Amino acid sequence: MFENKGRTEIEQLGEFGLIEHLTKNFELKNNSSLKGIGDDAAVVNFEGKKALFSTDLLLEGIHFDLAYTPLKHLGYKAVQVNLSDIYAMNGTATQITVSIGLSSKFPLEAVEELYQGISVACEKYGIDLVGGDTSASKQGLVISVTSIGYADEKDICYRNGANEGDLLCVSGDLGGAYIGLQLLEREKGIFLENPNIQPDLEGKDYIVERQLKPESRKDIVEALKVMKVKPTSMIDISDGLASEILHICKQSNKGCNIYEEKIPIDPMTYDTARDFGIDPTVCALNGGEDYELLFTIKQADFEKIKNNPDISIIGHITEPASGCNLISKSEKVHPIKAQGWNSLKHSTE
Ligand code: ADP
Ligand code: MG
Q1: 0.90 exceeded by the pTM?
Q2: Within 13 Å, how many C-alpha atoms sit on residue 163's CB side?
Q3: Strand, helix or coil at 170?
Q4: What structural domains does the chain harbor?
Q5: Tens digits of per-residue pLDDT, 283-324?
Q6: Which residues line ligand 1 (CB under 6 A)?
């Protein structure tokens, strides 16, 4: 891996040289970033707002496979999956820290690519890189991102605020990241059997991008503010719609009905799932990694959101005793179960 390009061993730079090299082009953009990289801790000032924090850990072989994940995309995605958690609180994301563990197989050029992806994400979403940590790793690549943001207390959306009669809404479309992963895994398998066969991902850009280069939904949080809609509860869809709906219902002590025909699924996701012999609805319910927002709103807010093409109403909140149900296209009632992440987790081991 990485042999074809120039290869500079990280040891040549040393830890401080590496940090300086990777971070020198990051500039602070937010007024709230008082001190970024270079001291013992970053300093932020949110002036009376509530501060939000969220961390994710990504391990090679568990969360990503470098056989088909370009490092630039990985850097971008590592930031997006984290920002998504701040947006899911209805907050504004402003800073991140990035910690990395590197095994000796990674030359400087590889880490540069990773940081290019991080940089593009920071530019696009207005985020400052304000710190991190760097270490050697015995095996593989480790990345941990912490995202920091703020919100007015009255604007924060928790998972536990859903009320009976609220409408369940979802942004974008679901299942694409999972079916994109199935496609990448299939092509990897073919390549391993016969390295002369090049991957055939033609015409599949959308679902491959959904997997490799997801976008967090800052735009939805902003659109809701403009429409003067404050969700009563909100969560981001990292583990699949089923699991996230159950989180909202459990924490809010409510039930729900969702309608299969209302679940937004892109035509390419739908067709590719069918080609794989997988039910597209199952991809949406249990696939995960879509990083869309799932939220509940008061019925009175229906008029404000109904014309937004990026928001689908998929059901409503009920009393807890009726449970959490999916009403199928043939009008059968199925209790929603969270598929254990073990069964669908894309471990590459
Ligand atoms: P310390 O010894 O206090 O942990 P370091 O030498 O690890 O400090 O880090 C020096 C500075 O560089 C700190 O501001 C730290 O947050 C930042 N930093 C370290 N590693 C990274 C990284 N991988 N990405 C971004 N910033 C980093
Ligand atoms: Mg350190």
Answers
A1: yes
A2: 6
A3: strand
A4: 10-155 (3.30.1330.10), 167-348 (3.90.650.10)
A5: 999 999 999 999 999 999 999 999 999 999 999 999 999 999
A6: 19, 23, 37-40, 98-100, 129, 131-134
